Amino acid sequence: MVVVHGVSVTPGAVVSRFPLPLCSSSSARPLNTGFNGNSSVSFFLKKHPLSRKIFAGNQSAEFDSKSKAFAASEKVLVPGNIDDDDASMVTEGPSSFSEESQILNLENQTMEENGAARTEDEASVFDSSKGYSNERLVREKEARPRIVPPAGDGQRIYEIDPMLRSYKDHLNYRYGQYRRLREEIDKFEGGLEAFSRGYEKLGFLRSDAGITYREWAPGAKSASLIGDFNNWNPNADTMTRNEFGVWEIFLPNNTDGSPAIPHGSRVKIRMDTPSGIKDSIPAWIKFSVQAPGEIPFNGIYYDPPEEEKYVFKHPQPKRPKSLRIYEAHVGMSSTEPMINTYANFRDDVLPRIKRLGYNAVQIMAIQEHSYYASFGYHVTNFFAPSSRCGTPEELKSLIDRAHELGLLVLMDIVHSHASKNTLDGLNMFDGTDAHYFHSGPRGYHWMWDSRLFNYGSWEVLRYLLSNARWWLEEYKFDGFRFDGVTSMMYTHHGLSVGFTGNYTEYFGLETDVDAVTYLMLVNDMIHGLYPEAVTVGEDVSGMPTFCIPVQDGGVGFDYRLHMAIADKWIEILKKRDEDWKMGDIIYTLTNRRWSEKCIAYAESHDQALVGDKTIAFWLMDKDMYDFMAVDQPSTPLIDRGIALHKMIRLITMGLGGEGYLNFMGNEFGHPEWIDFPRGEQRLSDGSVIPGNNFSYDKCRRRFDLGDADYLRYHGLQEFDQAMQHLEEKYGFMTSEHQFISRKDEGDRVIVFERGDLVFVFNFHWTSSYFDYRIGCSKPGKYKIALDSDDPLFGGFSRLDRKAEYFTYDGSYDRRPCSFMVYAPCRTAVVYALANPDDDV
């Protein structure tokens, strides 16, 4: 029996986290994924499923030790975890991994020949006169040779930030570890490009002759492959172990040429381990499902026939200059209380995201996780997409449709920890505590109740690097949001630690150099092989060099999530309006490192969880249930909430970073929290945490509320859409020009310039200002580009949208020019310099 453990929420330091109530194995109700019967799997998805049936047969096959596909002379070198009798077999290996590393020294499988890189402008592929198609562009891009550039000297960080020179010993050691790993990977694995293709050497590998299955499990005493194909007979297909802990079996094709394991068959590996006999899902499995009436998932041999494989039709979009990210969870994206599908999300939600003006969608909970309420953060099968929402082919179709719409697709990837489950996850996979993870307390995260990877292990590096590449290569994701990076980078995991910005907090003995080095390697691999890919790191600590390229000595992320902003808004919303400090707001929004880009957000999925509150709920509370109809009287709480909801989001986008993120539904002030289906849980002390009777009612998104023009939610949605389109038109988030000319604590007014726009915020609860003078950098005529008080956005129409504002010469608020405006209370207005032919 698997004990289904607690929930992982987004990590951080000092930030209050509210884990969801746990669901014990005795009370958990398995989800209906479409698995029906003992030997077959069928998926009945709502909209044109691409793969309608996964079939499992009952065929056995003999193990051929003289496989033509893999010669007996091939060796697997694992310097760590070897018996004394085997020590003589090790001839060489990475010097610094002599105790812990594992090197897989297998010949690379034959790959398709690389096509020549195109020399024409890629735009020409859309010119029908030249005969190019989107499909051809996709094929040609895939054929281009990929090479990770060599490591640099890592010294430019001291030019960027001279304060780092006091910590040269630590930083040079860190970069030395990275360079050494790159050199050893080059020497023993043929380079980072080859090393990151571990999925071509481990797991299930199909060749013309049959199927080879390999698994690294040095702690196991014996192993056999079991499943529907051999009637789960542990004696039918026993595996052989080489001297370095890799188990292997080759199953030749059947006499009719069909594979020994049919597509859709359930498979597991049975091992005799130091902890006893156990059946586990293969670590490199590409798909897994949960059968009705069962808790553990089953691994699925996933190898659909060519005619059922999805073929990508659309090229991946170029990376936009500024990212406007729509954070989404496929399962809860339906307006109905159900688990939504990839197909429905593709057809219903993606067009909505595009219409709202976002240019990227960040999808949570893609990696398979046995506990739905973990929000996808307790991963059990790292290479498998969540089967609750459909098949791998349908996920590919979703991503291809997003690309057709011009949307980047970022994956919320979890490499910071793993599920504690032992039967369907990596924990105790080979019966030992220190297989993929650190042993003892260092390998356990007490707050998340999960296992922590050993980033100093060679095979763990192979596994995680290959995992990142798998999602980019196989599914065409455009990048990642790396979860829990703060937890990775410090041995204290950021728990009960308040980061003050003092550099000694980042470069000392509490830094996990192995983990930071892994992050450098994975960013190096991603950006080297996929130059257009985007990486975002979830770090609350403010680690210096986090968003500096690896060759310059940095960690290599493109963006850092500016997590402090959301926490600051919650802190402010607990205060009276009279106690809001303009300087406090400005400081938090602008407190980021020069030259390191940030993704700003007023709230994310964290604030939407049960036990927490969204901004809309903090502002309007229970009044949201009774006073949101536009044809009914409002209340002071609703009027205040709608006004401040718009202002908070606009000032966050305007000052908070070079990118912006919103969690689905929050754009229109979604009235409900997120509460995953769960049962009652009895704790060891006898207390009871009540469940919700496994209800999906609070595990959905009521998009219909935002679309209903008779509700005030619609005005919030319209404003968010206008805000995104304003940024698309003016590109203010990535403008180098940013100047804060006024933060008046008496008037409660903030004025700043971003690009060619002038933003004016009046946070005062009653005072409106006529003929209010504001500074600007450029002379001319200004017009209103965005007005939060517009009736379309639920405002009171106190401004004339057609009014023109002419500048005066002369310094004001340290600006060379100025103009006069009307600033109503609780409004945000954006002014743009009007060109003669410009339609503002």
TrEMBL record:
The active site is at residues 483, 538. Its EC number is 2.4.1.18. GO terms for molecular function: 1,4-alpha-glucan branching enzyme activity; cation binding; hydrolase activity, hydrolyzing O-glycosyl compounds. The keyword Plastid applies. It holds the Pfam family Alpha-amylase_C. It comes from the Eukaryota. Coiled coil: none annotated. GO terms for cellular component: amyloplast. This is 1,4-alpha-glucan branching enzyme. It comes from Noccaea caerulescens (Alpine penny-cress).
